[in-house]
Amino acid sequence: MRASGILSLFDSPDESGNTITVTVSELRRSYGRVHDLSLESGEPVFITRDGEVDGVFFSMEAFKTLQNDLLLMLEDVVMKGRYLEDIISMHNGRGCTPQEAADQIRAELEL
Length: 111
Prior knowledge:
The protein is about 55% helix and about 15% strand.
């Protein structure tokens, strides 16, 4: 088992030397250790087969954190797009307040 650092949200083992990887065989033999490694690091553990990444192991806590991070990123992208749309609408005499726009977006995204 090799723990060589921390992985950012969108790094893959091919793009970063700072990843945690184990082989399929190591996962089979030492599931508990892989699970503990994922819990301790809070990061995904990449599973390799024949030298290639075959899967990713997340602790439930790390998975939920990733989901939350992705939702926040999505909300930010949508909010920025909507903000620009609202500026154009307000310039054309239509529109709503920023708070009304944020409430509408959250309702559409069911947040």
